[in-house]
Amino acid sequence: MNRLKIIVAVVLAVVLLVIIAQNTDSVETQLLFVTLTLPRAVLLLLCMLIGFVVGLLTAFPKRSGRKKPAD
């Protein structure tokens, strides 16, 4: 099962890199009151990183310092 996870992760990473490499045009992006002009590849990479961080934060919730009471 561990090998399957690695294979799937590598395939997804390669697909992501291909998508980013093929989208190098500059695009305008509005973020609240700011308009940014940056390459689409950078925008895709930023979105991927934000998604990765959100995934990590939800996959590993913060543990409280309290212990469960013994029954």
Describe this structure in words.
There is one protein chain. This protein is of the alpha+beta class and 71 residues long. The protein has one domain (2-59). Helix content is 58%, strand content 17%. Strands 1-2 form a two-stranded antiparallel sheet. A hairpin with a 2-residue loop joins β1 and β2 (34-39). α1 (2-22) packs antiparallel against α2. It is flat and about 60 Å long. The model has no long low-confidence stretch (mean pLDDT 84).
Main-sheet strand order equals 1-2
Q: Note the main sheet.
A: 2 strands, antiparallel
Helix content: 55-70%
Number of domains: 1
Distance between the termini: 36 Å
Using only CA atoms, what is the Rg? Answer: 19 Å
Residue share in β-strands: 15-25%
Helix/strand order, N-terminal first: HEEH
- The overall strand count is 2
Structural class: alpha+beta
Mean pLDDT: 84
Which outline best applies?
flat
A few lines on this structure:
It contains two helices and two strands. By secondary structure, it is of the alpha+beta class. The protein has one domain (2-59).
